[in-house]
Amino acid sequence: MKESGFFAEFRKFISRGNVMDMAVGMIVGSAFTAIVNSLVNDVLMPVVGLLTGGIDFQNLEIVIKEATDTSEAVAIRYGLFINKIISFVIVAFAVFCIVKAMNKMKDAAIKKEKEQEVAAPPAPAEDVVLLREIRDLLKKEN
What we know:
The chain is mainly alpha-helical. The protein has helices spanning about 5-15, 15-50, 80-120, 125-140; strands at about 60-65, 75. The chain has a single domain (about 5-140), classed as Orthogonal Bundle (Non-ribosomal Peptide Synthetase Peptidyl Carrier Protein, Chain A). The protein contains 4 helices and 2 strands. Strands 1-2 form a two-stranded antiparallel ribbon. A hairpin with an 8-residue loop joins β1 and β2 (about 75). α2 packs across α3. The longest helix has about 40 residues, at about 80-120. The N and C termini lie far apart (about 80 Å).
């Protein structure tokens, strides 16, 4: 069965290297997110709660409508929002550090490459080499 243009184009798109790199990045990113969430919820927020007098941020909320027998309470859970903001700041800081380190390594590699270019003189052109060989042969004959 021959694939139609749309499906053939989709298969070509999905098999490109960039898509695979992106998929790997998303998988690693989700694992990193789990680590950051644990760092925020299990390490940082208890310390912040202790500093703020034992307040558990996850339970901070403003109840708009109390729960009844037939419905749950309606509340603005701003404590969870604070947790998400802290998680975002940590992830942003980690990504910043990674990008900064990568840029530093890239700059060092470029600098080293430029130093090597300066240290090694460029090879003479092919015609110059040929002319030197002819000159040396003529000197030998005389």
